[in-house]
Amino acid sequence: MDESRALHSSVEEIAESAAMLAEDFGEFPDLLETITDTFREFFFADLEALRAAASAGDCERVRFLAHKFKGSFLAFHLGRASARAAALEEQAGQGDLSAAGASIEAISYAFGEVNATVEHAARILAEGMDGSAGVAGI
């Protein structure tokens, strides 16, 4: 498997994540929108802070921000993105930022995965959770 491909969610994984997200927020679609808006509002500032901390060699700040991304990605059921953030968190906790650049780029890429997941979940909710949204809409 291509190394970069292994870092990113497949279309099928996005569809599965979206189905779980739609199930989580089926009765509260406005809450999903609020959580997503909050994530989007802080994502780029946190990403820039993560890059700056890594450049400065601030392992504790990198660990903190990676932990924050890990939790955010879990909330959207994005296991690969969360695992990548968790790996960065663990490495920073051990004082190792040698792979931080690649991890940060994977975290950056995951912004699109969150958007795709949320948009697909919204389609599922609009269609009544009957599963007809499938992977075709991604």
Structure notes:
By secondary structure, this protein is mostly helical. The protein has one domain: Four Helix Bundle (Hemerythrin (Met), subunit A) (Up-down Bundle), CATH 1.20.120. It is built from six helices and no strands. It has helices at residues 3-7, 11-25, 29-56, 59-75, 79-93, 100-126. The model is unreliable at 1-5 (pLDDT under 50).
Number of helices: 6
CATH 2nd-level architecture: Up-down Bundle
**How much helix is in the residues?**
over 70%
The coarse silhouette is elongated
Mean pLDDT: 89
Spans with pLDDT under 50 lasting ≥5 residues? 1-5
| CATH T-level topology | Four Helix Bundle (Hemerythrin (Met), subunit A)
Whole-number total of structural domains: 1
Sheet with the most strands? none
CATH class type:
Mainly Alpha
Number of strands: 0
Question: Helix and strand succession?
Answer: HHHHHH
Strand content: under 5%
Kindly report how far apart the N and C termini lie. 22 Å
Query: From the alpha-carbon coordinates, what is the Rg to the nearest angstrom?
Result: 16 Å
Structural class: mainly alpha
Relevant terms:
138 residues, mainly alpha, Four Helix Bundle (Hemerythrin (Met), subunit A), 78% helix, disordered N terminus
Summarize it.
This protein has helices at residues 3-7, 11-25, 29-56, 59-75, 79-93, 100-126. By secondary structure, the protein is an all-alpha fold.
